[in-house]
Design a protein that fits this description.
Elements: H1 2-6, H2 20-36, H3 38-43, H4 45-68, H5 73-99, H6 112-130, H7 132-140, H8 143-148, H9 157-164, H10 170-194, H11 199-226, H12 250-289
Helix pairs in contact: 2-9, 2-10, 4-5, 4-7, 6-12, 9-10, 10-11, 11-12
Length: 290
């Protein structure tokens, strides 16, 4: 899986959809194991494994991208450490709160889960979209990496498993789980396609990012509407038994905002590529007519 992500920019685009031949069965197998052995999911082992794996990939991908830039070694190290320290501290705080039940509705009169979702996005998105240094990294990084990384979204199948076990209401689990699984399954095919660096592939990748963001908009909206609290508008027939509980709360509290930021970075990268291609095309036309 790691090799597929790091070498997505070198694979033939026509082979992208072949990745579904292994990603769909593996996703189905994982969902089946989670359903038949709920102790695995309840123990938090799944969350720990996935989060460590993603953390390593983010650290490795960022370092490899920095090595492609013309920054000095000192600038690379400083930027890499700054990003990784903030990212790790963010994860540590949310993880600690989740384990200690801070996100349970009965613990605090103030709904903390919406804050955990929206505050990092509100603060982080403008910074990531205007940072000149981040722009240099995105220009050096293959566009396929940020897309392929979100293969982990297939683990959103945990919502479908919860619905099948009657612990998560279908009004939330079905759109959230199906949207996540589709986004994750399509990540590698679209990553390999965008490696062709054509306008059509970049447009398709932009569409994939928009779909992934729309999935979050639907899931978060429904989640807030069914959760006990000031935002509740729907009382489902099956109470959401896992709402605010570790380990599942790590998905909305950390995975959702971090994935939104990855989508924002990918969209910025694709737009910069489109702009660069237009400039090159205009310069070529000018030379030919001149």
């Amino acid at each position: 899986m790691t090799a597929a992500i790091l070498r997505a920019d070198t694979a033939p685009p026509r082979r992208g959809w072949h990745s579904l031949l292994w990603s769909i069965p593996l996703t189905a197998l994982w969902a089946d194991l989670t359903y038949n052995f709920p102790i695995v999911s309840a123990s938090g082992v799944q969350i720990v494994a996935v989060r460590i794996f993603i953390h390593v990939l983010v650290a490795l991908g960022l370092w490899l991208a920095l090595e492609r830039t013309d920054l000095t070694p000192g600038q690379r190290r400083s930027f890499w450490l700054a990003v990784l320290i903030l990212y790790t501290l963010w994860l540590a705080v949310i993880w600690s709160w989740a384990i200690n039940g801070v996100f349970l509705s009965r613990v605090s009169p103030v709904p903390l889960l919406p804050l955990a979702i929206f505050l990092p996005v509100i603060i982080g998105t403008p910074i990531l979209l205007v940072s000149r240094r981040m722009g240099q990294v995105l220009d050096a990084m293959p566009a396929s990496w940020l897309i392929a990384l979100q293969l982990y979204r297939v683990f959103g199948s945990v919502f479908l498993v919860g619905w099948a076990r009657n612990v998560i209401p279908g009004v939330f689990a079905l759109p959230a789980g199906i949207g996540d699984v589709i986004t994750g399954l399509l990540a590698v095919p679209f990553a390999i396609s965008v490696a062709a660096d054509t306008p059509e592939a970049r447009s398709a990748a932009i569409g994939w990012n928009v779909f992934g963001l729309f999935d979050f908009a639907v899931a978060v909206s429904i989640g807030l509407m069914i959760a006990p609290g000031p935002f509740q508008l729907i009382v489902p027939s099956i109470p959401n038994a896992t709402a605010g509980m570790y380990p599942n709360v790590m998905i909305p509290a950390f995975a959702v905002p971090s994935s939104i930021l990855l989508h924002a970075l990918s969209l910025r990268q694709l737009r910069r590529r489109n702009y660069s291609q237009r400039l090159l095309a205009a310069a070529s036309t000018h030379r030919q007519t001149g």
